[in-house]
Amino acid sequence: MNRNVSIVLIGLQANVVENSDPTMKSVVGKIVLETRNTLVLETSEGRKILPKKNAELEFSDAKAAKVDGSAIIGRPEERIAKLV
């Protein structure tokens, strides 16, 4: 796992750079909920459920970072346990 991936994704602005579903590509929104396999983004068009698998995301907080969605599959508490 990439250690640069933020432990807490909720609240971050996310941009879908690549996705197996062409309708999800270029979706931009704030992450409002995270499950094991999905992120829920609050967009200008409402909430979008984004599967983490087969997605490449760009997070913009203090530092912009591109992340393969497969690297963040799992619950937030599971990511914390992997780092310990």
Total number of helices: 1
Structural class, by secondary structure, is mainly beta
- Unreliable spans: none
- The tally of strands reads 6
CATH architecture assignment: Roll
Which of globular, elongated, flat, extended, rod-shaped describes the shape? globular
Strand content: 35-45%
- CATH homologous superfamily identity: Ribonuclease P/MRP, subunit p29
Overall mean pLDDT stands at: 84
Q: State the name of the first-level CATH class.
A: Mainly Beta
Pfam family, one: RNase_P-MRP_p29
Catalytic activity: Endonucleolytic cleavage of RNA, removing 5'-extranucleotides from tRNA precursor
Main location: cytoplasm
GO cellular component, one term: cytoplasm
List the helices and strands and how they pair.
Elements (H helix, E strand, L loop, with lengths): L12 E7 L8 E7 L3 E6 L2 E6 L3 E6 L3 E5 L7 H8 L1
Antiparallel strand pairs: 1-2, 1-5, 2-3, 3-4, 5-6
Describe this structure in words.
This protein is mainly beta and 84 residues long. It has one domain: SH3 type barrels. It contains one helix and six strands. The protein has a six-stranded antiparallel sheet with strand order 4-3-2-1-5-6, with no helix packed on it. The longest helix has 8 residues, at 76-83. It starts with 12 loop residues before the first strand and ends with a helix. It comes from uncultured thaumarchaeote Rifle_16ft_4_minimus_1872. It is an enzyme of class 3 (hydrolase). Its EC number is 3.1.26.5. Consists of a catalytic RNA component and at least 4-5 protein subunits.
